[in-house]
Design a protein that fits this description.
The chain is of the alpha+beta class and 384 residues long. Helices cover 54% and strands 15% of the residues. The radius of gyration is 27 Å and the shape is elongated.
């Protein structure tokens, strides 16, 4: 079972706890112990957790009414390290265990599902916390014009930000939960909730490996952040969902092929106008996708990845199923020959006005793709 991410050893935990309890009330962090960053780290932990360390893992499990085995599985799922049997847990830790166990006892979640909830929440919030500390907090504490060290600035800054960030986190989570619930409700049937037909796309920076050798670490970090920010904004703005970022690559999904096509082309167009960015290539596939813990899996995802790897610079390649779906929903002609004939007939006054298509599709040479057989890619573009 685990405690937290303070990084202190069990011996340090007990010693620092005593130091915090014995400190005079009202003293600022580190008062009388200047330079003792370990002491301030414990004070920061108390500020963030809002409680003292009171329980060993065994005591916390007993207080929550769960077995040590289940408690340990919950904590490991949340991403925390084993700590033995030191007093490192708080009242909030006991309450969290009790809540998860209560959901299982009430039959609302199976034990496996409860552990999955713990794992998905832990993984998501761990990344968020790392980002906030590494980027957000670091930026606010530089430069130190006041003459105080970053350590001395951090405590009052966290004290001010904590309630605001907490409320904002809950707000965004509720918004995302509402959107995800809406997608499930709109699903055709129960099977579609798990195995869904989605458009899945990858966007990949060309020549990123060469850039890592040429750019300084800070420049590389800024480029990756700019790339991820641009992709995140464009995907969200046009109705898609950013699944994950992989440094030089992003994975996105959309319920509608037309939305995915617009996102892919917008990404290419936006990056092409940014001189600081390398070329981009995008691959999109349409088909059945398994969703799990916010990620997507399956042959469709693998195909989108392969299409990205063979796409020429600044182009979007799609698979046959995606091309057919665009034709089905009327965003691209099923046949360019039929579309040209319809346009000619309309011009001569012998036919109805032709449909207005958003996209054009050009078939490329069929080619074998490792693990997926022979694939016929289509080049996606805007229709003139």
């Amino acid at each position: 079972m685990t405690a937290d991410d303070s990084g202190a050893t069990p011996r340090d935990m007990d010693t620092d706890d005593d130091a915090v309890r014995d400190a005079p009330a009202g003293d600022p962090p580190g008062a009388g112990d200047e330079g003792d960053e370990n002491n301030i780290a414990v004070r920061l932990e108390q500020l963030i957790l809002g409680a003292d360390r009171r329980y060993t893992p065994f005591q916390a499990a007993r207080g929550a009414g769960v077995s040590m085995d289940l408690a340990a599985r919950f904590w490991r799922a949340m991403g925390f390290a084993d700590i033995g049997q030191v007093k490192a847990l708080t009242e909030a830790d006991v309450l969290a265990l009790r809540r998860l166990a209560g959901l299982v006892e009430a039959g609302l979640l199976s034990e496996a599902m409860a552990i999955q909830v713990a794992r998905s929440t832990g993984q998501t919030t761990a990344r968020l916390a790392d980002w906030q500390i590494d980027s957000f907090l670091e930026g606010l504490t530089e430069p130190q014009d006041s003459g105080l060290t970053r350590t001395e600035i951090t405590y009052p800054l966290v004290e001010l930000l904590l309630p605001e960030l907490e409320e904002f986190l809950v707000y965004v989570w509720r918004r995302q939960l509402a959107a995800a619930t809406g997608r499930v409700v709109r699903a055709q049937d129960d099977a579609e909730m798990v195995d869904r037909r989605l458009a899945v796309g990858f966007a990949d920076l060309v020549g990123f490996t060469r850039l890592t050798r040429r750019l300084e670490e800070e420049e590389l970090g800024e480029l990756v952040e700019a790339f991820e920010t641009t992709c995140s904004d464009l995907v969200a703005a046009h109705g898609g969902r950013l699944i994950k970022t992989l440094g030089d690559e992003v994975l996105f999904a959309a319920d509608d092929a037309g939305i995915a096509a617009e996102i892919g082309l917008r990404l290419i167009e936006t990056m092409a106008h940014d001189e600081t960015m390398p070329e981009l290539r995008v691959g999109i596939a349409f088909g059945t996708v398994t969703t799990r813990m916010g990620d997507v899996f399956g042959t469709t995802v693998n195909l989108a990845s392969r299409l990205t790897s063979i796409a020429p610079k600044d182009t979007v390649l799609v698979d046959q199923a995606f091309a057919e779906e665009l034709g089905r929903i009327g965003d691209a002609p099923v046949s360019e020959a039929d579309a040209a004939a319809a346009e000619k007939a309309a011009e001569e006054g012998t036919g109805a006005p032709p449909p207005t298509y958003r996209f054009a599709l050009q078939p490329m040479w069929q080619r074998p793709v490792r693990g997926l057989g022979v694939v016929e890619p289509w080049l996606l573009s805007r229709r003139d």
